[in-house]
């Protein structure tokens, strides 16, 4: 469901900014999850609680013992109070007994002590269970997301993926650490109190409990609304997070186009929306408690009215009426909490539904049954009538035939959108082709394991990703078991050593995520060193288009020569120097191969390639 943002409520907005706001609303459209208005799903519930299974055997008995101990001690106190009144303070027959009063008081103190100790240990054990469940769930989700194919990320903004790993999991945290055990305690307590009330005086017990069905009837009507209101809050927050993520990633563009104010206005309106939605949900939630209290008040009225009558008729003692009223007040508490717990459970169900939706998402590209690892790759690659569609019915590649021999370097050229990046994504099988066949050393790449294939392919992308960590760690990303010496040798080979040693910490210089403290050329040299260290049989390179100074360009060309030696390579080429040295130049146009040949072959006649070269020179 696509949600349109509502007009900003931000103060001080004039007509002009309202117009700009409208443009922003049209600009930022986030795909939201649909409101989930389904009945309580037991299958999902059992699946969620299945995460407790590994720990239940070990921990639940301990938690249960502590819980039962706590409940018994809690429920015994009012009984001892009734004894104190009826037998020690105001006995019907005989004198008041101080000794009995002291004994009962001492017993109550001991019971409170036991209750306290049982509570401490119960909380300790439940926290252990809760934290372990959350740990497992979080790591399952992260592991799974790592395996998902490119098409999954093509469809989703990074922010919304982030929200599921953080917010949705966190919202389950409370359920597992407190909720589940409180639920159990409340149920046991309710059961215990019901039995006790009926045992003390079944007539009074039944009279008081008349209000319970009324209470449930009112609260069930409210529950559904409360759940939907909380889902709305969650959805709005998720939209804020998506926008936040996009805004931070795109901050440079925002500032360059001085769009900060408009961005802020839009954020404001989303923030306001979220606040309103929270207020609404919270008000509904708060309404739930008083309803229970008012209904409970009726129960108490019945208790004293009917209780007084039973005392007069000699069916009940004053002590038992006092005990009864304590039990009854202990009765409304768990019912009230159960209502809140039900809400918490429903919110958690919505979160878990979203988490399970990701966990159930199968990677579009995966090993087929019985796939074998591809042996050491020699490097012969054949594209046989390869057709590929990102979206059904829109072919990005329309029947590509290509024959590459081991060790050759292939330059892919063509205007924007012609299919160059698509071809390189298919070699590493990041997408599965729609029809045709891609073979490496005669083996269809769909028949071999992904890991064996990708581990022999090195990819250097245009947007070279630098992870937060040291320069050394970033190069070592190519091969985690490489020694320091090997890392430095790789850097020397691609001529990155010099600039690295000039950095304040040399190889140990910490770089931030994306390596913004490094220049484009430096980042590219680092990624070359990383690829060289990985020593792949096939190298894929998406050349940076940014203009680099001639000196760095020369360095990069020299580095490239070393990098390409003895490997089959595909380069999405932009620089003439790269294209000129390629063994084969593949000219693409609208997803089709238009020309194939060396630089001198292709420039010898008029064609698409010549047109591209001429266009480059025209601007020099
Ligand atoms: N993830 C995607 N989902 C849908 N369509 C896509 C996706 N990626 C690319 N396309 C489409 O596929 C076609 C080929 O895109 P591709 O990225 O391969 O072009 P390119 O030649 O590498 O372009 P450039 O030189 O601009 O990088 C384009 O029409 C593009 O719109």
UniProtKB/TrEMBL annotation:
GO terms for MF: ABC-type oligopeptide transporter activity; ATP binding; ATP hydrolysis activity
Transmembrane stretches, start-end: 59-85, 97-118, 190-218, 288-310, 316-332
Subcellular localization: Cell membrane
Annotated ABC transmembrane type-1 domain residues: 62-345
Limits of the ABC transporter domain: 381-615
Gene3D superfamilies for the chain: ABC transporter type 1, transmembrane domain, P-loop containing nucleotide triphosphate hydrolases
Pfam families cross-referenced by the UniProt entry: ABC_membrane, ABC_tran
GO cellular component: plasma membrane
Main subcellular location of this protein, as a coarse class: membrane
Topological category with respect to the lipid bilayer: Multi-pass membrane protein
Record-linked PROSITE patterns: ABC_TM1F, ABC_TRANSPORTER_2
Keywords: ATP-binding, Membrane, Nucleotide-binding, Transmembrane, Transmembrane helix, Transport
Protein name as catalogued: ABC transporter ATP-binding protein YknV
């Amino acid at each position: 469901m696509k949600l349109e943002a509502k007009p900003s409520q931000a103060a001080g907005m004039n007509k002009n900014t309202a117009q700009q706001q409208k443009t922003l609303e049209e600009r930022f459209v986030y795909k939201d999850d649909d409101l989930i208005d389904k009945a309580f799903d037991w299958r999902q519930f059992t699946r969620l609680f299945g995460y407790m299974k590994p720990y239940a055997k070990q921990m639940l008995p301990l938690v249960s013992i502590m819980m039962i101990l706590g409940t018994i001690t809690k429920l015994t106190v009012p009984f001892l109070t009734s004894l104190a009144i009826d037998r020690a303070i105001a006995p019907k027959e005989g004198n008041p007994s101080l000794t009995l009063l002291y004994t009962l008081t001492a017993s109550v103190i001991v019971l409170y002590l036991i209750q306290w100790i049982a509570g401490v240990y119960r909380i300790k054990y439940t926290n252990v269970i809760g934290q372990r469940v959350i740990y497992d769930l979080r790591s399952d989700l992260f592991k799974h997301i790592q395996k998902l194919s490119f098409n999954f990320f093509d469809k989703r903004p990074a922010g919304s993926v982030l929200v599921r790993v953080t917010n949705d999991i966190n919202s389950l945290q409370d359920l597992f650490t407190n909720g589940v055990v409180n639920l159990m305690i409340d149920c046991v307590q309710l059961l215990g109190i019901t039995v006790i009330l009926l045992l003390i005086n079944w007539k009074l017990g039944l009279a008081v409990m008349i209000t319970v069905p009324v209470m449930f009837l009112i609260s069930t009507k409210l529950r559904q609304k409360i759940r939907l209101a909380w889902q709305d809050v969650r959805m709005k927050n998720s939209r804020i997070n998506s926008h936040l993520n996009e805004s931070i990633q795109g901050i440079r563009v925002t500032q360059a186009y001085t769009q900060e104010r408009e961005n802020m206005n839009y954020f404001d309106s989303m923030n306001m929306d979220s606040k309103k939605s929270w207020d609404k949900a919270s008000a509904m939630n708060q309404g739930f408690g008083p309803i229970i209290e008012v209904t409970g008040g009726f129960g108490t009225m019945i208790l004293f009215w009917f209780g007084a009558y039973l005392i007069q008729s000699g069916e009940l003692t004053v002590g038992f009426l006092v005990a009864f009223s304590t039990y009854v007040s202990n009765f409304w508490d768990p019912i009230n909490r159960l209502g809140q717990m039900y809400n918490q459970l429903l919110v958690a169900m919505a979160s878990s539904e979203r988490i399970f939706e990701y966990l159930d998402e199968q990677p579009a590209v995966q090993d087929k049954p019985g796939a074998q690892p591809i042996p050491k790759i020699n490097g012969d690659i054949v594209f046989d009538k390869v057709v590929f569609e990102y979206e059904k019915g829109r072919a990005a590649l329309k029947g590509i035939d290509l024959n590459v021999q081991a060790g050759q370097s292939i330059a892919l050229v063509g205007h924007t959108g012609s299919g160059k990046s698509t071809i390189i994504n298919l070699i590493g099988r990041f997408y599965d082709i729609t029809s045709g066949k891609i073979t490496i050393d005669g083996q269809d790449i769909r028949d071999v394991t992904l890991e064996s294939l990708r581990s022999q392919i090195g990819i250097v992308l245009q947007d070279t990703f630098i992870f937060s960590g040291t320069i050394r760690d970033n190069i070592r990303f190519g091969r985690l078991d490489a020694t320091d010496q090997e890392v430095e040798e790789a850097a020397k080979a691609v001529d990155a050593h010099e600039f690295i040693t000039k950095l304040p910490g040399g190889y140990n210089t910490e770089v931030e995520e994306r390596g913004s403290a490094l220049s484009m050329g430096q980042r590219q040299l680092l990624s070359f060193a990383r690829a060289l260290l990985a020593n792949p049989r096939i190298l894929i390179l998406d050349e940076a288009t940014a203009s680099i100074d001639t000196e760095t360009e020369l360095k990069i060309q020299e580095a490239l020569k070393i990098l390409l030696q003895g490997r089959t390579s595909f380069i999405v080429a932009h620089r003439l120097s790269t294209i000129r040295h390629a063994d084969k130049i593949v000219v693409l146009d609208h997803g089709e191969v238009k020309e194939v040949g060396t630089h001198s072959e292709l420039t010898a006649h008029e064609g698409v390639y010549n047109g591209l070269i001429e266009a480059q020179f025209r601007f020099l």
